[in-house]
Amino acid sequence: MSAVLDLPRVLIVDDEVRSQDAIRRTLDEDFTVLTASNADEARSQLERFEVSVILCDQRMPGLTGVVFLKEVRERWPDTVRIVISGYTDSEDIIAGINDAGIYQYILKPWVPDHLLGAVRTAAEAQTLQRDMNRLDVELRTSTPVLRQRAANKLERARRVFDFDRIERASGSPLDGVCEMAARVARYDLSVLVLGESGSGKELLARALHYASPRAGAPFVVENCAAIPDTLLESELFGHKRGSFTGAYEDHPGLFQRAHNGTVFLDEIGETSPAFQVRLLRVLQEGEVRPVGGARAVPVDVRVIAATHRDLEQRVHEGLFREDLYYRIAGVSLTVPPLRERPGDIGPIAQRLVGEVGAELGRPRVALSDEAMACLMSYPWPGNVRELRNEIARAIALSDAEVIEAQAFSTRVLHGQAGRSAALNGQGTPLPASGTLGERLDAMEAMVLRETLLRHRWNKTRAAKELGLSRVGLRGKMQRFGLEG
């Protein structure tokens, strides 16, 4: 009985009993499963039990899953949030990824192994973060056993989040970024990480933390774009009981919980000028004043901020305070988007296939040469996050051990064909200079690749469309390096 009680708790929120039962059967060997048919029942469960992961159906009577998960994010921020939906193009879900801090959304009809793998990964991430939050307490104890346990956890985290674990090819543009970050990590400087959504800014921030002298203390994350100013202040700086409706008890903010550690403020460029004033005061004075509190609380934290915005431009436009910009940008690091480092796509894809395959119970799955060529031809506007989702989808929907190109979504298969003719097959601009022959070669390579992608690498159909023989097509593929 005690073993069951020690399992992480998962809460299923779905108004259809059959859906609840199906998910329960998938998860009940690995988790303690709770269920709720509506938001009120779910709130009751969350108030009674510590829940690691919540899975919520998007379409429910009364309110959508995203709206409810936004409330969960505000009241139970440590719970990992997953939404399940049968509607892939729902604007509510897309907006909710940020607004509700959704960890992942799963498409119906879901695959049992895929669902189980996603929940396992979410629970492990929650457990690791919870362990790290307790680490600084254990390090201060006088019990040798607890000190050793804490040291082991710290060593594990350092291995998991080492700069070398940031997957990239030899000579990648990320090499210089990681080298600079490793040098900066030793010093207690504020760091601003710039880059597109999904490019790996948080991964770089975690590596910075675990390479720093603060590694034994908590690393806490807040997405500043996900919640309004008043709730953001409460989340970061804390609040006193009775300070606003729903404040039933004192709540220590993330700055207090991260004392001696690191606070990662994602999407800081989305904050309002009013909030920026308060944040600047905290950073200057080294203390926070909880909402409704009369006394300031000293805090010692390192701040790593991130944004996909051009903050210097926002300063010029009067949308971001110049004094706060210089306070957070002690050192600036830029993570290039995946389309600017196409050489990294292969190593990242191979690693993701191994990780996702293991999560889904398919550890031996691999990519064919044509599948890899297809991945390397797509520009990946969603960066590594989009690449991971595409690989997970392909593994879940294919029974073969070797994933072929046709297992990918239409968006990836035909993505090149819909792009501007100003781009070549590698997702980079056609040369603006060079001889006529060089420019024509680049255009020919683009047309060949797009045609092959459109026909899912069927050489017979591609050759027919281009008016070539199979031998002629193969010769041109070899010439332009398109043979997988």
Quick structural summary:
This protein is α/β, with parallel strands linked by helices. It is built from 21 helices and 14 strands. It has helices at about 1-5, 15-25, 40-50, 65-75, 90-100, 110-140, 145-160, 175-185, 200-210, 230-235, 255, 275-285, 310-315, 320-330, 345-360, 370-375, 385-395, 410-415, 435-455, 460-465, 470-480; strands spanning about 10-15, 30-35, 55, 80-85, 105, 190-195, 220-225, 260-265, 285-290, 295-300, 300-305, 330-335, 365, 400-405.
Please explain how this structure is put together.
- It is built from 21 helices and 14 strands.
- The protein has 484 residues and is an alpha/beta fold.
- It folds into 4 domains: 2-111, Response regulator (Rossmann fold, 3-Layer(aba) Sandwich); 161-336, Rossmann fold (3-Layer(aba) Sandwich); 341-407, Helicase, Ruva Protein, domain 3 (Orthogonal Bundle), CATH 1.10.8.60; 414-484, Arc Repressor Mutant, subunit A, CATH 1.10.10.
- A 5-stranded parallel β-sheet has the order 2-1-3-4-5, sandwiched between helices. A 5-stranded parallel β-sheet has the order 7-8-11-6-12. A two-stranded antiparallel sheet has the order 9-10.
- β9 (287-288) and β10 form a beta hairpin.
- The longest helix is centred in the N-terminal third of the chain and has 28 residues, at 112-139.
- It is globular and about 80 Å long.
- The protein starts with a helix and ends in a 5-residue tail after the last helix.
- Mean pLDDT is 82; it is low at 1-5 and 416-429.
Q: State the end-to-end CA separation.
A: 54 Å
Reported for the largest beta sheet, the result is: 5 strands, parallel
Could you please say which CATH topology of the largest domain applies here?
A: Rossmann fold
Shape estimate: globular
CATH uppermost class of the largest domain: Alpha Beta
